[in-house]
Amino acid sequence: MAAVSFTIQSREKLFEQVEEVIKNSSKTFYFATHFLPKKERQAVRALYAFCRTSDDMVDKEGASLAELEAWRLAVRRPASEQRDPVLYCWSKIREDYKIDPQYERELIEGVGADIQFHEFQTWEDLERYCYLVASTVGLLSTPIIGLAPGVSFEKAKPYAIKLGIALQLTNILRDVGEDARNGRVYIPVQDLRMFGLSVQDILNQVYDERTIALMKFEIRRAREIYLDALPGIAMLSRTARPAVGVAAMLYRAILDEIEAIRYQTHIQRAYVSGRKKLAYLPGFLWHTMRMDWKKMETAC
């Protein structure tokens, strides 16, 4: 098929259309990205739409490796050859910001793991998955949102990786019930055994002192990773710091909500309400803008 030729006006409409993906799929990230300047906000939302569309494709019933390969090939095409609105917008951003396609390929590898899902045996296995599906998003967005003066991509990279892992682990803990209903358990088998549990127990929505102890253990792990990732937020440009800082802190607050519902994410979804987000906002912004990466890195 021939590529579609987009006018300047139609391109603007396409980006507006693509922004609806994040608005409908992630209220937290949509809220946080309001703090980015318009150009960067539009670009990051195009990236999120690409990530969300990739993930939705493999999550649909009957998803196949052949479809994933077709998507992988389509993603590689330049913007001038794209027909899909999401891929056009993302390809345009990738070209404009000269983004390394390595992380794009790794992201697709990660979401593809859900087509032929296998339980993760160890934390290292899950950590690798979290890197592929979440840390890559941070690495793809870094050239868009920019870094503070004197900070190189290589210096910021380990912290972006840690933040992605923390965010994805939070997702996993929040979605235990939803994933179980889809026949998936992301918590490592090694961790389950540590607390006398099995994959089948999670699928059966077992809730007792063992599952509470497991959730406490995983929440503690997630909080430690968030703490390790904080210097990376301070390494971002001043215009990017509020958006990323607010997103990270709101996601971390989901862990508090899991505790508030007594770890019952097998039957209830934990979330931060709109009212709480607004209440948290002044403190989160104040904390984010006071960060000094040099001092934080020394402290770590």
Topology at a glance:
Layout: H1 8-25, H2 27-33, H3 38-59, H4 65-76, H5 85-96, H6 101-112, H7 123-145, H8 153-174, H9 176-181, H10 189-194, H11 199-203, H12 209-234, H13 241-260, H14 274-289, H15 293-299
Helix pairs in contact: 1-2, 1-3, 2-13, 3-5, 3-6, 3-7, 4-6, 6-7, 7-8, 8-12, 8-13, 12-13, 12-15, 13-14
How would you explain this protein's 3D organization?
The protein is mostly helical and 300 residues long. It has two domains: 10-116, Farnesyl Diphosphate Synthase (Orthogonal Bundle), CATH 1.10.600.10; 117-300, Farnesyl Diphosphate Synthase (Orthogonal Bundle). It is 71% helix and 0% strand. The chain has 15 helices and no strands. The protein has helices at residues 8-25, 27-33, 38-59, 65-76, 85-96, 101-112, 123-145, 153-174, 176-181, 189-194, 199-203, 209-234, 241-260, 274-289, 293-299. The protein is globular, with a radius of gyration of 19 Å. The termini are far apart. The model has no long low-confidence stretch (mean pLDDT 92).
